[in-house]
Records
---
Amino acid sequence: MKKFLSMFLALAVVFSVTALAEENSSSQSDTPNTKPEFPVSVGNTIIKEKPMRVATISPAATDIIKGLGFENRIVAVGNGSSGPVFPDLKDDYPIYEIGSLMAPDLEAIKKASPDVLFSHAPFTDNNRKKIEQMGITIVEIPFAENFDEVFENYRLVCKVMLGENKGAQYSEKKISRYKDILKKVTDISAKHSEEKTAVYMDMYPKILATGETFQNMILKEILAFENPAEESKNWILSDEKMKELNPDKIFYNYTIDPEEIKTYISYSTTTAVTEEQLYALKGKFFQSRSPQMFMNLVSLMYKLYPEDMPADLSEL
């Protein structure tokens, strides 16, 4: 576990430093623009000026904004968002906590005074009206079902944060990198595509990625595993299905204690446990569809197939 976390932190530094450098380079582009960056329209919403203060009402929105390199503009976050947004400044530059989508803290939102508030689903009409009356623009990031929709969300956020032209330049550069990572992971996995099975456990012991989930798509299309939980629905397997499980590998949310997996009756005799093929993942990044999930995939590949990965992280 310590080795995994060290690898994850190293990758986090590489990705975050690169993201900040790219945002700075985008904002200082020498390329002449034929039209001003703002205002921009996102659906029926108009963003009149570059937002310098943003709020994120959901953890998923927070992860996406941070993952795209706009962490330094966040002034408020919703319940459940992870960690201090920028800890070096937390004493002098407070980050307001603004409740949840269904129960927003309107007073805290007013104090934070963001230019834009990102959500992952609609507010109630009453709360939306109250927030908009404060002069705050609400932008909804749709829930993505596949990678095409994930990348469209990244384009949307970058357009809001940087404007029409710079947003497009910045997002396409980042999306190109993420696509390269996916291709590398997919190609390496395909080299090891002998018959093998794997499950992803999001909550101990029976909450497993089933056929309709984004995580099942990752298991099958990106990592080249068959998922024995695929025929079930809504993340839940029956007791009978649990008894039939014998995955070669178990991927699990890093919040789960692997020792519990090893001793649970449905897993204790599986190939994954007897051959010690258990791998931790930052499940929330796949749930939020944030850029950090690509970093998590890279870290996983270093554990699965280290011989196929570059020794230097900068080569990714």
---
Amino acid sequence: MDKIVFITGASSGIGAGCARKFASQGASLILNARNVNKLSALKEELEKQYGAKIYLLPFDVRDRKAATSALESLPKEWQSIDILVNNAGLVIGTDKEQEGSLDEWDIVIDTNIKALLAMTRLIVPGMVERKRGHIINIGSIAGDAAYPGGSVYCATKAAVKALSDGLRIDLVDTPLRVTNIKPGLVETNFSVIRFRGDKEKADNVYKGIRPLTGDDIAETVYFAASVPEYMQIAEMLVMPTYQATGTIVSRK
């Protein structure tokens, strides 16, 4: 795959999994995250293991000015982005809607919706101009139905579905493709952030079931990106075998 892939939230979890998968298949990668040390370590790993070409673009996706400046700073040979993986996302807390923190909700909404929109707005026009490109948004099973203590997060992932579907409609007269990947239980740093750093509570989420990994989701992302260009994988819901919905799980 001789393509340039831009991945947000690439320093860990699904984003790092996607970086490893695409690097292993010969793609050149632009990696974004806030944690420069983790990004640098990942760059070193991928260069050593796969001889991959990596360009680091560290900034907070919530900072629109920083995002704009960073993309404008890309050297010419890195500007023709073929695949955008809008992966950056998070949830904080499990509070009831009437009891949650407005400040924390701002962070979740700004990251999961507004940053995804900003990256799309900044990168997709170039794809349209070049008549090639693929936008892969990392949604969630949470976008299909609300669950206790997750209404705001669920709302943001329902928005990712609506934005993916809307973008697909807006691009229907172009060769561009839009995919929404919706993972179920995936064991990453995600739950640690949700429980505000409480590792024990985070681990309990996955007790009694084998969850998916960031690398598992990366396989589905790569599959969607690698099908023939006349095909478009619009949406994929991916869960562990013993999960049926966002809330129905069989634990052994």
---
Amino acid sequence: MAFDYDKYIRPGKLPHIWCPGCGHGIVMKGLIRAIDTLKLDTKNTAIVSGIGCASRLPGYMDCCTLHTAHGRAAAFATGVKMAKPEMNVLLVGGDGDGVAIGGNHFIHACRRNIDMTYIILNNKIYGMTGGQFSPATPTGAKASTTPYGNPDPPFDIAKLAIGAGATFVARGTAYHATQIDKLIVEAIQHKGFSVVEILDDCPTTYGRRNKFKSVIEMMNHLKEIAVPVKAAEKMTAEQLKGKVLTGVLFKEERPEYTGEYAKVIERAQAK
């Protein structure tokens, strides 16, 4: 029997606005399967986003949703979690929204280790707002603002999250669709700030400029560069050149922020 996605979709919101071949729909289906696997109460689950193609995702979901200003998803989500620590708080956004204009909020959410899950759909471009290069655009790649090739080195978003203090960091791809929900499930179950980076494709503003002939070619590229963490342990540095690791990249236990903040309130009230 086919999985029933409809019960998690807000009535009257489809069809979606994503371009044909965009991987965002694949990620949304993975998120829905994760919510279903964990049997999360959708009335007690907040999905927060900023601005951009990926940030339109919560609008289709029949949960508590918050569509905020550009780059401010982590700040608004922090407010939700602090006001209602019992809620399941998820963030969804793109690479530009998350680590460019939202970069400062992102690193401080990681640092605090607040119990939220941030799903970053990394398609290496600002897809909705004009095709500008983002902090994840590969060096040499073309965008509307780098027509002769991007001179900047890209962020490794997963490493940035680890360095900033996130206690669960994972990476998947839109090609490996059946892995997405498993990574999100583990991220939500983790008590602390979790980041799940999904390498995605943007056929319209990235693929066309960078001479990908089709969506299939873009998806196959994701397949070719992805190496599971366990497989990478048996590979040489030369074999791993140009590859990206997938799976759970980092996990540790550390005091969670809302719990620690509650202790501060207790101490203050005792005095």
---
Amino acid sequence: MTLGEKLKEARKQAGLSQEQLAEKLGISRSAVAKWETDKGIPDVDNLKALSGLLSVSIDYLLDDGQDMDKTVIKEAIDLSVYEGNRKAKKDSCVRGKYPDARISSLIAKAKLTKGQRILDTVLELFTDGCGVGDIYSSLKDLDKQYYLVEQGDKQLLVLVTDEFIISRELAHKQYSNKFEIGDIRFTKCAGQIK
């Protein structure tokens, strides 16, 4: 598959039109159309943004031998079949998907822009240490729960929403309790998901 074919397929799997993708990237629809017909190539910044928006790796987009299904698996789920609160249901969903794996729950916080960092510092002075980063992350991702799944020699970053479980094999293993992927900072929670 060409880069253009991969972009088009990934865009469709993400449920986005060319117009919607262009809007999210801050570019014209015709630029997306050129990329998808192999009449143009996205620059490095746009490749990074495409990777995040379409849940595919840059390696996948540029490597003509990699299969998309090996990079990201997105499956619909029904949380109502599990017991407990929302978090417990998501834990059970991940355990059911990866029964023999070592699973760590992750706390995810978005990296802050320069303006948000300044506001964060000011807010922490007046709110007992609760900054804009904590508020922004908690409001933005109410339905998302992240997990680090270690299965054999693979590490997967798994995202569970109220509707989907999305598993992505990590290109580089994460050994630290704190790490960054894209614009998100992750911290491993103590203990394993049982």
